[in-house]
What we know:
This protein has helices spanning 84-98, 111-120, and strands spanning 25-32, 37-43, 55-60, 64-68, 74-82, 124-133, 135-140, 142-146. The chain has one domain. The longest helix is centred in the middle third of the chain and has 15 residues, at 84-98. The chain is 17% helix and 37% strand. The chain is elongated and about 50 Å long. An 8-stranded antiparallel beta sheet has the order 4-7-6-5-1-2-3-8, covered by helices on one side. The chain contains 2 helices and 8 strands. By secondary structure, the chain is α+β, with helices and mostly antiparallel strands.
Amino acid sequence: MVPGYIAHPCDADRVTQLPSLHDYEVNAYLVDGKTRTIRFTLVPPKGSPNRNDSCGLIFQEVEGYCLQRHLGTGIVLAVEEQPLVAFLTENEEHFAHESQWGWPQFWRGSTDLTAAWLGSRGCRVWTIATSYGLSGWVVAGNAAFHNGHA
C-alpha cells in the first residue's frame, strides 16, 4: 500500500474488464484535452461476423498518456489494466527526468506522492500493446468498450 493512499471501498471491484481486443485494427484515435477523453476507433478482426461494424475503446478522465509508433493503422495485441504503483515505479526515472519540461502532468515528484494523488482521483493505468503500429499507455479514471451494436 502506498503511504497516504486511502483505498476506495470498491477498489477490488473497480478493475475494468475489457473484452479481448486481440487482432482488432486501430483505424483512428482522437485525443480530446477539453473533455479529457481518448477515443479509439477499432474494426473487428478479419473473419469476424461483425467485421463491418465500427467499435470504440474510450478512456475518460484522462490524466496522461503516451502513444508511440503511429503507422496509420495498428493491430491490437492486448489492452490490459496494470498495477498503478508498479507502472509508476517502472517509469519513475523517466517521469522524473521529463517532469522538468512539464510531462507527465500527473507526476508529483515521486512514485509514492503520484500514486497517492492518482489514487485519490480514482485513476488507473492501461497498456496498449500492438503487433503492428500504435502502442503505449493511458492513465485515466475509466475505460469502456462499445461494439457497433451498443
